Amino acid sequence: MNVGRASRRSLAKLISAFAGARVVTAAGESELDLPGQAIYYANHSSHLDFLTIWAALPAELQKRARPVAAKDYWGSGVRKAFAEQIFNAYLVERHGSSSRRQRTSDSGVSPKGQVEGMAEVLAAGDSLIIFPEGTRGDGDTIAEFHGGLYKLARLHPEVPVVPVTLANLGRILPKGEVIPVPHLSTVIFCEPLHLNPEEDKQTFLARARQVIVEVLAKHQGPQATDTSVRGDGRPAPRDQAGQDHL
């Protein structure tokens, strides 16, 4: 399947229109100023998430951005063709040990495991789109982040980590639903983060997560509260079944 640049841009416009997506910066500006390579991370509430972020990127960045997607959903049939050949997705297993993960295509899973494979993508000069919560949520709360984001930032400190907040996208195609519901959404690209030399995993992940929490509350309204916090003040993880462990 050979998809040219014009076809990709047409598809991107179609996805953005379907998602009703307004693309802005955290300052509310429509003009994006994004780094040439980045680790884009976002909150996760819909199968439309990676498609919408991909579509929101400028054309020159879009062709080198690789969404990380669940192999059990995107890894077969027409979905696999779309994921790998159109979006150049990097497919990962959501269950089992890394020793059982095998590369099934050029866009597939690294035999070295998820994080090592994604680090190879960054080393090749491409960007990543990842969802560190690991599984889709309700769209209103942000679960605890898995450690993969920190590991990637540590392995490639030269690559900016760009928070992307998706507001109201989960209401278009909620978890468990197959029929989209028309709704306006917003894609907010925030200021890049960098891992500080002495910053530990918990501190970095909490800082990265807080950016998404605050921006989501601003753009999605009062229902976007941080209700996933435990009594000790730390975010509570979602059900571990089906986690991407990113």
Write a compact overview of the structure shown:
The protein has 246 residues and is α/β, with parallel strands linked by helices.
Please write out the topology.
Layout: H1 5-19, E1 21-25, E2 39-42, H2 49-56, H3 59-62, E3 65-70, H4 71-74, H5 77-86, E4 90-92, H6 114-123, E5 127-130, H7 148-155, E6 161-167, E7 185-189, H8 201-220
Parallel strand pairs: 1-7, 2-5, 2-6, 3-4, 3-5
Antiparallel strand pairs: 6-7
Helix pairs in contact: 1-2, 6-7
Written description of the protein model:
The chain is α/β, with parallel strands linked by helices and 246 residues long. The chain is 32% helix and 14% strand. The chain has eight helices and seven strands, in the order H-E-E-H-H-E-H-H-E-H-E-H-E-E-H. It has helices at residues 5-19, 49-56, 59-62, 71-74, 77-86, 114-123, 148-155, 201-220, and strands at 21-25, 39-42, 65-70, 90-92, 127-130, 161-167, 185-189. The protein has a seven-stranded mixed β-sheet with strand order 1-7-6-2-5-3-4, sandwiched between helices. Helix 1 packs across helix 2 (49-56) and helix 6 (114-123) runs parallel beside helix 7 (148-155). The protein is globular. The two termini are 29 Å apart.
